[in-house]
Amino acid sequence: MINKNQRFIIKTVFSSLIRRRSRILIALLGVAIGATVLLGMITLCYDIPRQMGKEFRSYGANMLFLPTDNQSMMTMADVSQAVSLLPKEKLLGVTPFRYESIRSNQQPYIMVGTDFEQVIKTSPYWKIEGELPKHSHEVLIGTDIANFTKLTIGSTMPVLGKTKQDSRYNEELTITGIVKTGRTEDGYIFISLHDLDEFLKDSDKAEVVEVSITATQDELKHYIDKIKANSLTVDPHLIKWVTQSESSVLGKLSSLLYLVTLVVLILTMICVATTMMTVVMERRKEIGLKKAIGANNKSIAKEFLAEGLILGIIGGMIGVVCGLIFAQVISTNVFGRSIVIEFYLIPTTIVISAMVTVIACLIPVKRALEVEPALVLRGE
To answer: What is the pLDDT of residue 378?
Structure first.
């Protein structure tokens, strides 16, 4: 229960805030802006790895599955077992690749069997003229091959190769699209992995599997260790240029956001300290009178710190609402996605706002405690 003395202090504090509401509103606005930026920026810092992770996936996969040293191929069953160790909610795509040497019109080429439904998930940077193969005996050719052979969409190309039993196959394939990446893919012929398996009479195997997963570099290393501990045939690796670039960008961006937040909090402290200093100067006679009738420094300090605490809590609550809107607007406009709110940041923001405001009040409180009753009451 609140005793009479505590009720009197609370009433005095609120009365003081209301009487000087024009000045207090300025300080309250400063605290609210600080809390808005604090919650908005911290929320973005927590959510940016998720948002940026999805953006970085447009540059390709970030993990590779390769056969272990004593094998040239992985079975798709082993790949599926390794993939099952990854979190499904973060997994974007898993694309197998199998490479075979073939000849077409006496020219040697590399034909790559893959899963076209998955390749557009792990390699969204592919620029495809035409469309992906949807039926048997349809292929996608690289732009270098198209330029060399003068083949176009709808053309057919003969393919000659050997099965795993050393018998020959000779097939007519229809070109449905031309792919351009600016990388080695421009010199390959892409076909459904199922079709290639039928040609080779050797099914459900892959040489390389690209995995695209939304995760930080540390999380990826954890997943790799987990797969290595549970699989003897699949050797997982990071695609370092992707993961290192991602970590570097995220680190610099997070540092920038934290720096901006720190600067705003310092400006908030200056705003509150300046306002409270003005309030102390206006209340010098009141402080002197209280000291003259027996009020001690502790009770005066408590009153001012209580005003600062209330100011911080109210400003923090206003800032929480504005901060959530602020973070949502930035996320929607920059990334085109809604932000994921960490709800524990809400009370944390209010507590930090209150602490910042109380700390900002320390210098004005010190000035208040230095007031000499005799000098003030004489008008000096």
So the answer is: 60
Domain coordinates of the chain in residue numbers? 4-54+247-377, 61-238
What are the tokens at 101?
A: 């040497």
pLDDT at 349 over 60: yes
Neighbours of 80 (CB within 10 A): 12
How distant is the alpha carbon of residue 261 from its chain centre?
17
Average pLDDT, whole number, for the chain?
Answer: 83
Give percent of the chain above pLDDT 90. Answer: 31
Question: Which helix (H) or strand (E) segment is 32 a member of?
Answer: helix 21-56
DSSP 252-268: HHHHHHHHHHHHHHHHH
Instruction: Kindly give the pairing relationship between strand 63-67 and strand 127-130.
Output: unpaired
Q: Is the model's pLDDT at 147 over the cut of 80? A: yes
Strand duo 107-114 + 188-192: pairing: parallel
Residue type, position 155, single letter: S
Please give the structure tokens belonging to residue 194.
């199922």
Tens-place pLDDT, residues 282-310 = 777 777 777 777 777 787 787 778 878 88
DSSP string, 73-106: -EEHHHHHHHHTTS-GGGEEEEEEEEEEEEEETT
Compute the distance between CA of residue 279 and CA of residue 283 in angstroms, rounded to an integer: 6
> What pTM did the predictor assign?
0.62
What are the backbone dihedrals phi and psi of residue 67, each rounded to the nearest 5 degrees, phi first? -65, 155
Cβ–Cβ < 8 Å for 161, 102: yes
Contact between 292 and 342 under an 8 Å Cβ cutoff? The reply is: no
